[in-house]
Amino acid sequence: MTQSNQIIDKNGETSLAASNITGLKQFTDAWAKTCTAAARSASFSLNGGTIVDTSAYHAVSEMPADRQLRRLYRMKNVEPGWAGPGSCPPVKEAVDATVELIKRLRNLPFPIPMASVGADGRTGLFWSDEKLYADIEILEDGKVGYLIEVKGRPQVDNEEDMPDVGLPEGVAWALASAYLNNRK
Question: Of the residues 28, 29, 68, 175, which has the fewest C-beta atoms closer than 10 A?
Fold first, then answer.
């Protein structure tokens, strides 16, 4: 038997039944399509008939947004006390909202912020460079709190609702002011 028509199955009867099907090529082609579709939906791929986990390939991306997303994903399952006595694991909704903000930022012409998780379980984003200082915190009530200082402008300390799409208005204003209006 060649590798292309071998069916590996611990249940010998299934393998025998499959090998007795007329049109074995049609069966294996249909099987490969089914496995490929199922594998893709679960971050797997077929490599020469072998199912290979591809989630690690995505995890090694060195894009700034991907590094920050990995940081947040690693923090999703920490236990109480992870940062010392009394520290809380991150609030799932806060992690999800922070992940969503990073995803929204990834295709915009701004630097990707550092993602953070505090010992109180809150998550946030942080920028600090010569143009902008911004500390954004995802709050429990679906709001975003921020302290922002754009070079040459007054500091802004505010809270606003997290929009369904795009960035919170104050954050978008600060990023545009710092990185789009100050280009030389």
Answer: 29
